[in-house]
Amino acid sequence: MSLNLILLGLPGAGKGTQAQYIVDKYPIPHISTGDMFREAMANKTPMGLKAKEFIDKGDLVPDDVTNGIVKDRLGNADTKDGFLLDGYPRTLEQANALAEMTDVLNKPLNAVINIDVDPNLLTERLSSRFICRNCGATYNKLYHMPKVEDTCDVCGHHEFYQRDDDKPEAVKNRLDVNIKMNTPLIAYYKERNLLYNVDGNNSIDDVWQQIDSILSSL
Ligand code: AP5
Ligand code: MG
Ligand code: ZN
Q1: Which of 11, 93, 101, 214 has the most Cβ atoms closer than 10 angstroms to its Cβ?
Q2: Is 174 an annotated catalytic residue?
Q3: Is 73 considered catalytic here?
Q4: The domain 3-117+179-217 belongs to what CATH superfamily?
Q5: Is 125 a catalytic residue?
Q6: Which residues, other chains included, contact 174 with Cβ-Cβ below 8 Å and sequence gap of 6+?
Q7: Ligand number, closest to the Cα atom of 162
Q8: CA of 169 to the centre of ligand 1 (A)
Q9: What is the pLDDT along the chain (218 residues), one digit of tens a residue?
Q10: Which of 143, 175, 177, 206 best tests ligand 1's pocket when mutated (most atoms within 8 Å of CB)?
C-alpha cells in the first residue's frame, strides 16, 4: 500500500520536525515547498529570485508557481510508494490543483494530518529556531538543543543559521497570512474525510506519539 500524506500546520507548528520522524519510519520522500524555495533562492534560479520577493516578507508565493513545482516533484519516480507533503497545499486553489494532480497520477491521498498549535506559542518557537548550515536539521534554543553543544546531532557540523523569515518583521505577517488560509483548508479536508487532528501544543515527542499512532492505524 502506498502512503500519500499531507502535513498541515501554521508556521512553527512542527511540520518539518515531525516530517523527519515520519520519513525515518516510512520510506517516502519529504516534499517541503518551503525547502524547495529556499534551495532555489540559495542557487539564485529565476524561480528562486521570484519567490524571494514574497518569502522575505512572509507572503505566500503565487499559486501558479507553487503548483508548478509540486506537479513536477510528484512526477518523480521516488513517489511510487508515497509522499509526504509539508507546507502544501496552503490555499484552496492549491488544494484543488493537488486534487487534479493526484487524480491524474492515480495517487489518492490517505491522510491529512493537521498539527494544531495555539498561535500564541508560535512566535516564540520561530524566533528561537536555528538550523544546521550543512544538513538543514532544525533545532530550538528553548525546546530542542543539540545533544553536544554547537554540534549538529545529525551530521556533526558546527555552523548554524537563522532563517531570514524568522526575523520578527516577517514572522508577524507570516502568521497573519497563514491563519487566514488555515480554516478553509481544514474544512476542505474534513469534508473529504481525510482530516486527522493532532494536538501540537505539547512536546515534540508527544506530538510524534500521536502521529505515529494515526499512521499505524491507516
Ligand atoms: P515553510 O518553510 O513551509 O515555512 P512555514 O510554513 O512558515 O513553516 P515552518 O517551516 O516555519 O515551521 P514548521 O511547521 O516546519 O516548524 P518546525 O518543525 O521547523 O515556508 C516558507 C515560506 O515559503 C512561506 O512563508 C511562503 O512564503 C513560502 N511557501 C511555502 N510553501 C508555500 C505554499 N504552499 N504556497 C505559497 N507559498 C509557500 O518547528 C519550528 C521550531 O519549533 C523549531 O525550532 C523546532 O525545533 C521547534 N518545535 C517543533 N515542534 C515543537 C514542539 N512540539 N514543542 C516545542 N518546540 C517545537
Ligand atoms: Mg518547515
Ligand atoms: Zn547537520
Answers
A1: 11
A2: yes
A3: no
A4: P-loop containing nucleotide triphosphate hydrolases (3.40.50.300)
A5: no
A6: 11, 58, 165
A7: 1
A8: 16
A9: 799 999 999 999 999 999 999 999 999 999 999 999 999 999 999 999 999 999 999 999 999 999 999 999 999 999 999 999 999 999 999 999 999 999 999 999 999 999 999 999 999 999 999 999 999 999 999 999 999 999 999 999 999 999 999 998 899 999 999 999 999 999 999 999 999 999 999 999 999 999 999 999 99
A10: 143
